[in-house]
Automatic annotation (TrEMBL):
GO cellular component, one term: AP-1 adaptor complex
Annotated region described as Disordered, given as residue ranges: 721-742
Organism from which the protein derives: Cynoglossus semilaevis
Lineage per the UniProt record: Eukaryota, Metazoa, Chordata, Craniata, Vertebrata
All residue ranges annotated as the GAE domain in the record: 667-789
Protein name per UniProt: AP-1 complex subunit gamma
One Gene Ontology biological process: vesicle-mediated transport
Amino acid sequence: MSPSIPLQEMIRAIRSARTQCEERGVIQRECAAIRAQFRQSDNGSRSHNLAKLLYVHMLGYPAHFGQMECVRMIASSRYSEKRVGYLGAMMLLDEKQDASLLITNSIKNDLSHSNQYVQSLALCTLACMGSAEMCRDLAPEIDRLLRASNSYIKKKAALCAVHIVRKVQDLGELFAPAARSLLAEKNHGVLHGAVILITDGVCFVLCMFQTVPELVQIMRSLTVSGYSPEHDVAGVSDPFLQVRILRLLRILGRHCETASDAMNDLLAQVATNTDSTKTVGNAVLYETVLTVLDIKSESGLRVLAVNILGRFLLNNDRNIRYIAMTSLQKIVNTDHNAVQRHRGTIVDCLKDHDASVKRRALELSLALVSASNIRSMMKELLLFLSSCPPELRSHTASGIFTAAERYAPSQRWHIDTMLHVLTTAGGDVRDETVPNLIQLITNTSELHCYTVHKLYRALLTDISQQPLVQVACWCIGEYGDLLLRGECQETEPVQVSEDDVLDALETVLQSHMSSPATRAFALTATMKLSTRITDNVELMFKIFKTGSGIQLRKFMIFFLLFLKNVLSPSVLRAAVLERMPVIEKNSGQSNGESAGAKTEPKIMVKPGETSPPQQPVNQVCDLLDLLGGSEGPAQPNPAQSTTAAGLTMNTSSAAGGDLLDLLGGFQPTPTLSVYEKNGVNLTLQYERQSDAVLTVTLTACNSTDSDISSFSLQAAVPKVCPQRRPSPHHRSVESGRRGDLDLSQSSSASLFTAFHPCPIQVHLKMRIRISYTVQGSAFQDMVQVDSFQGL
């Protein structure tokens, strides 16, 4: 290829290449020719070669070897070369390149050039790639050009000053006097640059409150001016300048009542006279609405702004509807009544096919729910829940629950609404929904009969919604006797027999859709029904055999002992299976909030009733502790504490000990405290899984006020005992909480190890090494357990 090939022919040759390899060959040959001509001292086609190199750069190929040629061409006295040189500098150089510092002096000289186009090239280059050092050096020259008589130069200088202020905010005060003087110009380009300069000059924008009358006058002249071909866009005079002025007025009037009063009439005029049938007019109206809502405007003006957003909701453009609902969402708390007028239009947006519009309409609809419209709004939300996308069901259900709890007109309506949600989208509700609904049902004693009948019908209709099935099983277990009476006046009378109720629970146990938690609810309900509606041990034994899983088997064995009267029915059975008392909801602690210590629930006793006897309650706590679900106040005996040298197993009360003997093998896990230092407590638990396997669990708890990092636990036993254990723990332990949870969410760390006891008569020992870091200090200790009692 000839070195003197024109730019047009090079472009034609590159476009005609059939493969990428052929294209690279063309570009490599041309770049080699350009590089060779750059080395020549007397080259008359420098601008021609640099133009071709810039095209190669636009295609994504390397062109860095042309940077120094750009510097030389900028220093040239010829305008054609200077123009291409500045263009190459803007494309090939940036503030991180050392070569950019070489053009500072050339830019300074060109800013004082007599030709306005040369000055324009220097201003554009500085505004495009000027570094902080260049801005500091050339800022006085820019301030001088802002006061020039040429409007073309002042427009370019204003945009360059904007770049300088963004790079070095301290230089904003230098341009403040000149920026204000530019507002008196008639040229729209100069006005546009001046408004942007004042808006971006955060260091002096607060000193521009006195410019509000000038800005108002400029905006009013744009609003009432006639047709101007130079600035008209779809019937609106210079909408770009109007939008910029409205944004600046919003900043100036945000915290100034005087400035807000000065612009109220103007904003009303713009909101009234701007055409809303075109996209350009909607852009100006939207900025006007944002300004009205952000400043200290009059109440009537704010209502006008909300009405404009209401008109946006009727627009066919989904983008306009979306930004309208986004703006209404921000002001729904302050201008609730004004937004309520457009409730029907907002609810209609729930039927939109666009997912973003539908989500925004849902959030706004939930915010509009109040005590006066709870019934009508809830009908719409429940209808939307039945057909909404799966990704919105959880958010919709949570919003309905929150609104129903806050504005429920009656307890029955509240229960019906929650049951409707569970029936429609039970699989998408949050985990706290089931206990919240149970607490609500417990506190409404006059609706127990109505609720248990309704839940029984729902259970027969559909058992796929697990939260609904869990609540239904709980209510049947608590109020099954009310179900058999058939005396509920609020629903249609239904004849239900004992066999029907037990068959429903057996269906839940046998269903493949039932989770382990749901089966546990059904088992507990069956157990409670033994004291309420039936005493048929054989039938319940048949039901219990349908359960599966180790934990459920444990429950079934325990329940069968109750049913066969192995345990003392006069002491334990009545106390354990009695009806749940009314529990006061603790409003001071939200769902999911972690507490440092456990708090006992407050039990409210109705008038005319007596509190449960104290002794059976204590025995029930022992029983529930065996099942792993006790929150009772049982306290360990200090005299029965353990030491690292020898383990003394804690013993239960007399009734609890008899119970353990009857169950045969349900022994409590022995606990041994082996380490307590620097706020770290290490406990050891061991349990014999079989004759050949012993399981040991080490649990570390953090009781300090700071987190523990680099936490490591290692355990070892004699080599004659085959051992299998996981890799040592290396995690962080947070402060203030306790419990056997994942280390990333709790202050407890556990190390599990299982090994076979020694086949020969060797005294079993364990050695534990613990290392951790507390407040930057590293600690490492060794602990040895010399005996395991009972082995």
